[in-house]
Amino acid sequence: MRLHDLNPRPGAKHRRKLLGRGESSGHGKTSGRGGKGQSARSGSSIRPGFEGGQMPLIRRIPKRGFNNVNYGTRYVGVNIEDLNRFEDGARVDAVALKSVGLANGTSDGIKILGTGELTKKLTVSADAFSASARQKIEAKGGACEVIAKTPHQAPRNSAKEARAAKAAKTAKPASK
Q1: How far is CA 34 from CA 18, 37, 39, 69, 171, in A?
Q2: Degrees (nearest 5) of the Cα angle 35, 32, 46?
Q3: Where residue 154 falls among pLDDT bands split at 50, 70, 90?
Q4: How many other C-beta atoms lie within 10 A of the C-beta of residue 27?
């Protein structure tokens, strides 16, 4: 195969739709825009969810409860069968998993899942383990180490205490 033999796949290229070329073209008169109205005008764009001034559905329905999507913990799942690529007796942690491409992407941590079979004795360090994964690792003589996350803490000093500490540092010592 040479460069002059290359062609796009059949169906990948389409002719541009020619609009406004007379009634008999099939795309004449209104040029595919329908009748009159806002969407028939040039430069018109209507945002998604806009209902012509009527109260939109998203604002009509009641909103109750709590949605955890912004506050939940998002784990990257790693199946136990994928750990077989490490050597017998190896220590598997987040750095090792990322180096072989098993835990890529943004997340709050790594969770080891129990899909598949483990054939090697490993010491696995991760943020979370499923019950079946923990059972399979320990059945092979390996160990599961849960990485302890420190909970988010409020600042130790309040603003008032911080100002008092700063004032104490800058104050001149009294001389005798």
Answers
A1: 16, 9, 8, 41, 78
A2: 70
A3: very low
A4: 14
Q: Which two tokens stand for residue 146?
A: 């849960």
The mean pLDDT value of the chain amounts to 88
pLDDT above 80: residue 149: no
Q: How far is CA 70 from CA 34, 73, 136, in A?
A: 42, 9, 33
Residue 133 has pLDDT above 70, yes or no: yes
Whole-structure pTM value: 0.53
pLDDT of residue 108: 87
Contact 140, 122 (CB under 8 A): yes
According to DSSP, residue 144 is labeled: E
Judge contact between 64 and 70, C-beta under 8 A.
no
Beta strands in the chain (DSSP E): 75-79, 91-92, 109-113, 123-126, 128-129, 143-146
Ordered domains of the chain (ranges, CATH): 72-146 (3.100.10.10)
